[in-house]
């Protein structure tokens, strides 16, 4: 890899708003979006000349510049973009989420050019950033995804919300895997490798594997059902007897089937109106309730189309509780 870049920031860099009540728009403005960089932020000057290499189990290894990619058919995809939380504390729920539009080319279109070997079950993606995280020398940021997932919606993206990617979002080129946690969407993408097995490196072996049973782990890929409440905002004081229209966003890889809210710490649940899910975007839910004495909080529980629901606690997608007062 040539060193056609410099670090704007070296080491961990994050912008983690985690304030769901500010997520009032379906498409989150870029300035309000999450930013998570484990190893640093790259500053790339001549983005169009940036090269990616596609190699591994392919008939025709290839190098393509961002310019080459920009000459291929462009697609845009709206998608929820969620951080899985800190890999050092993976079960801790966070609300690091936004919903954005990505623009770029289909990875599938690019893979067609290189004649993949049918035995290549995984696509590795390697970022240009390298360094230390969690007191470990990580080498380059490397992730993987099953080749079967590439389908029509995995992108090599050069735009976010209709603008050139910002340096911290991976300018000039990043992978975007809609429906997977953000960690899988490698920024400053430098190399794609097709391989038989999962990728090596701490971000696919040491971290980002959930324990699902004793001795059994599952990669942190698909986004589990989750929801956030936008209104009421934390600390709001509601007038007793007022009809309040609670609303928020829900999402899950594969789509949301339903959302319920509880105003009594989970004793009883009320079904919400949920808009029809479209693509990988988050889905709006709303529910009217009458503010009554004794109410102190609202929680929402999303269920995915595959039938999985948000757990009460102890997992990254556990219920999100918003405290309020009734006066
Ligand atoms: N090259 C590289 N890609 C990366 C990361 C990184 O540290 N290096 N962080 C990942 C994580 S944990 C998340 S949540 C998303 C965040 O993307 P964003 O900062 O554009 O919102 O990028 C992912 N891609
Ligand atoms: Mo993340």
Q: Brief description of this entry?
A:
By secondary structure, this protein is mainly beta.
Care to describe what's here?
The chain is mainly β and 327 residues long. It folds into 2 domains: 5-219, Sulfite Oxidase, Chain A, domain 2, CATH 3.90.420; 226-326, Immunoglobulin-like. 4% of the residues lie in helices and 44% in strands. The chain is built from 2 helices and 26 strands. The strands form 8 sheets. A 5-stranded mixed beta sheet has the order 6-5-14-9-10. Strand 9 and strand 10 form a beta hairpin. The longest helix has 8 residues, at 107-114. The termini are far apart. The relative contact order is 0.16. Bound molecules: ligand MTE and molybdenum atom (MO). The site of the ligand Nc1nc2c(c(=O)[nH]1)N[C@H]1C(S)=C(S)[C@@H](COP(=O)(O)O)O[C@H]1N2 has 21 residues, from strand 3 and strand 9.
Ends apart, CA distance between termini: 63 Å
Structural class: mainly beta
Bound molecules: ligand MTE, molybdenum atom
What strand order characterises the main sheet?
6-5-14-9-10
Tell me the major beta sheet: 5 strands, mixed
**Which regions contain 5 or more consecutive residues with pLDDT less than 50?**
none
Name the helix and strand elements from N-terminus to C-terminus, one letter apiece: EEEEEEHEEHEEEEEEEEEEEEEEEEEE
- The CATH homologous superfamily of the largest domain is termed Oxidoreductase, molybdopterin-binding domain
Global mean pLDDT = 96
CATH fold description of the largest domain: Sulfite Oxidase, Chain A, domain 2
CATH secondary-structure class of the largest domain: Alpha Beta
β-strand number: 26
Reported CATH architecture of the largest domain: Alpha-Beta Complex
Q: Give the CA-based shape.
A: elongated
**Individual helix count:** 2
What number of domains?
Answer: 2
What share of the residues lie within helices? under 10%
Taken as a percent bin, the fraction of beta residues is: 35-45%
Q: Determine Rg (CA atoms, Å).
A: 21 Å
